[in-house]
């Protein structure tokens, strides 16, 4: 154990001598289940080396782990970020197996394939260019949660690190083995014509080949990696990304379209008509498919997901237990482990499958293959499968800006406002509040089963707002209007990343 001689600071002027002499690590980058910063503005490369030292120290201290797998996504600075981080890990005495450019699920797969419990994936996921981050593992299919993130942060700022001389090796065979492994999960009834869009992110190197090996016809859309993301930020929750896929589907008369996010752990889907389907309903369709094969099993959903999981006939007939839990890949992943659930679904498109389907980690390509299996083994288009669900009106996931230092306080005040409404019998468009779910922000459940959610984003300075109505589209707008008015009362919110279009005046 030694003390760091590098001074750690929270602010540092770019293009100064001190930028190379001190470690810039802004505290707000330590988030609920991973770490993310704006590179150069909130974190510098010296800071990344310190992070590597701290992570190596943390793994040895808390989990007696002596080796990690490391990979990185396709951004122009990600390889440099990885190299600086790895230098710190090696100096803490840990060995490193570097699998290079990859997807987050490829990193998780490599842990199993190489038998290494430690892991660090350099990625900012779907965040815009300028962001970097690290998904940190402590066991197979397990990433750090809030308590461990706090411990890591304490080690960083203590400056007390283990020292040693770890070994480095480059593993160049994992990507191909991973591709073949995911493709092997295909179970084709009929060959599908599939648009694959990766938004010029890392997924373009993996998902199209997986679908071809699986036996489907692939139509590529923006699959050439380009770290400037010239077309769309690869985010399956971004309606513009899905609309672009939809147009490609219509132009090519495809059976469906698949969108993969920047680091490959999430999916988005459009049907054969080019209409976007929010990922929680994709998860519901998959849950309906696997429930009869696993009656009595648990299915985990996040607080943003559709209420249809709770009322679905097929899921109910098979006595599957729906558990609502916190949003976040580490939270849902951990809950799937803890409860031995057959699957876990997030509205964002993170899907988690237990054996025999998966290894409990989130993989957009695997989730897409399993969804394609379901479609190809039924003589119905995707739109008809969707129409078999109870109708509901949904918002996209919307994110108003709120400073990281304020967002949790804003959510606390929203909880208090809704508790006051509930206790005083306030009705929104003549419908009262039935329940408040506060496991993660506040999900307001109304008497007509509609709901609205406000929570703090775990990885960006923003809130997350989602709603669903089982009656009318107007009801959906009423819920969002109530949320918006409360946020305006509290103050401190900035621009929204996307909003509902103007109410058309009819359902």
Secondary structure: elements and pairs:
Blueprint: E1 2-3, E2 8-9, H1 18-21, E3 23-24, E4 35-38, H2 45-63, E5 67-72, H3 78-91, E6 95-101, H4 104-114, E7 118-122, E8 131-139, E9 142-143, H5 146-158, E10 160-161, E11 168-170, H6 174-183, E12 193-197, H7 207-214, E13 217-221, H8 239-252, E14 256-260, E15 267-270, E16 276-277, H9 279-290, E17 298-302, H10 308-311, H11 313-317, E18 321-325, H12 329-339, E19 343-345, E20 351-353, H13 364-376, H14 382-387, E21 393-394, H15 407-424, E22 427-428, E23 431-437, E24 442-446, E25 451-456, E26 463-469, H16 473-490
Parallel strand pairs: 2-3, 5-6, 5-7, 6-11, 12-13, 12-14, 17-18, 17-19
Antiparallel strand pairs: 1-10, 4-8, 7-8, 8-9, 14-15, 15-16, 19-20, 21-26, 22-23, 23-24, 24-25, 25-26
Characterization of the model:
This protein folds into 3 domains: 2-172, Alpha-D-Glucose-1,6-Bisphosphate, subunit A, domain 3 (Alpha-D-Glucose-1,6-Bisphosphate, Chain A, domain 3); 179-387, Alpha-D-Glucose-1,6-Bisphosphate, Chain A, domain 3, CATH 3.40.120; 393-490, TATA-Binding Protein (2-Layer Sandwich), CATH 3.30.310. Helix content is 36%, strand content 22%. The chain has 16 helices and 26 strands. The strands form 6 sheets. Strands 4, 5, 6, 7, 8, 9 and 11 form a 7-stranded mixed β-sheet that branches. A hairpin with a 6-residue loop joins β14 and β15 (267-270).
Outline, from the CA principal axes?
Answer: globular
CATH class of the largest domain: Alpha Beta
SS class:
alpha/beta
Low confidence ranges: none
Strand proportion, as a percent range, falls in 15-25%
Number of helices: 16
CATH architecture of the largest domain: 3-Layer(aba) Sandwich
Do you know the CATH topology of the largest domain? Alpha-D-Glucose-1,6-Bisphosphate, Chain A, domain 3
CATH superfamily of the largest domain: Alpha-D-Glucose-1,6-Bisphosphate, subunit A, domain 3
Mean pLDDT over all positions = 95
Output the radius of gyration. 23 Å
Number of strands: 26
**Total domain units:** 3
């Amino acid at each position: 154990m030694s003390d760091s001689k590098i001074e750690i600071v929270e602010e540092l002027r770019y293009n100064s001598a001190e930028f190379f002499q001190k470690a810039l690590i802004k505290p707000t980058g330590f988030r609920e289940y991973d770490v993310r910063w704006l590179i150069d503005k909130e974190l510098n490369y010296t800071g990344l080396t310190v992070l590597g030292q701290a992570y190596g120290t943390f793994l040895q201290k808390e989990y007696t782990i002596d080796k990690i797998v490391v990979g990185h996504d396709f951004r122009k600075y990600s390889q440099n970020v990885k190299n600086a981080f790895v230098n710190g890990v090696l100096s803490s005495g840990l060995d490193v197996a570097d699998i290079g450019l990859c997807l987050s699920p490829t990193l998780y797969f490599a842990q199993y394939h190489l038998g290494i419990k430690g892991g660090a994936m350099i990625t900012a996921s779907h965040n815009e260019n300028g962001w970097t981050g690290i998904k940190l593992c402590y066991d197979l299919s397990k990433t750090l949660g809030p308590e461990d993130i706090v411990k890591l942060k304490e080690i960083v700022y203590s400056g007390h690190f283990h020292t040693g001389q770890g070994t480095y090796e480059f593993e160049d065979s994992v990507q191909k083995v991973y591709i073949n492994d995911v493709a092997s999960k295909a179970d084709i009834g009929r060959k599908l014509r599939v648009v694959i869009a990766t938004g010029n992110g890392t997924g373009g190197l993996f998902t199209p080949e997986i679908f071809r090996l699986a036996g489907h016809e692939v139509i590529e859309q923006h699959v050439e990696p380009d770290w400037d993301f010239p077309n769309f930020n690869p985010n399956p929750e971004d309606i513009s990304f899905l609309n672009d896929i939809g147009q490609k589907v219509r132009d090519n008369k495809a059976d469906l379209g698949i969108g993969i996010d920047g680091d490959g752990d999430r999916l988005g889907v459009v049907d054969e008509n080019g209409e976007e389907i929010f990922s929680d309903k994709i998860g519901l369709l998959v849950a309906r498919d696997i429930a009869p094969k696993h009656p009595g099993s648990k299915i985990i959903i996040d607080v943003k997901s559709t209420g249809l999981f709770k009322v679905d006939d097929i899921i109910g007939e098979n006595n599957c237990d729906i558990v609502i839990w916190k949003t976040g890949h580490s939270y849902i992943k951990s809950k799937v482990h803890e409860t031995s659930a057959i699957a876990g679904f997030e509205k964002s498109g993170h899907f988690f499958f237990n054996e025999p389907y998966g290894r409990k980690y989130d993989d957009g390509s695997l989730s897409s293959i399993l969804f394609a299996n379901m479609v190809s083994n039924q003589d119905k288009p995707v739109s008809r499968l969707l129409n078999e669900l109870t109708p509901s009106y949904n918002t996209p996931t919307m994110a108003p800006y709120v400073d990281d230092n304020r967002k949790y306080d804003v959510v606390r005040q929203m909880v208090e406002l809704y508790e006051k409404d509930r206790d005083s019998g306030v009705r929104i468009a003549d419908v009262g509040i039935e329940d408040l779910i506060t496991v993660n922000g506040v999900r307001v459940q109304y008497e007509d089963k509609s709901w609205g959610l406000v929570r703090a984003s775990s990885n960006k300075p923003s809130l997350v707002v989602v709603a669903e109505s089982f009656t009318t589209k107007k009801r959906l707008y009423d819920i969002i209007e109530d949320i918006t008015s409360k946020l305006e009362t509290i103050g401190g919110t900035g621009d929204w990343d996307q909003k509902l279009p103007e109410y058309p005046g009819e359902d």
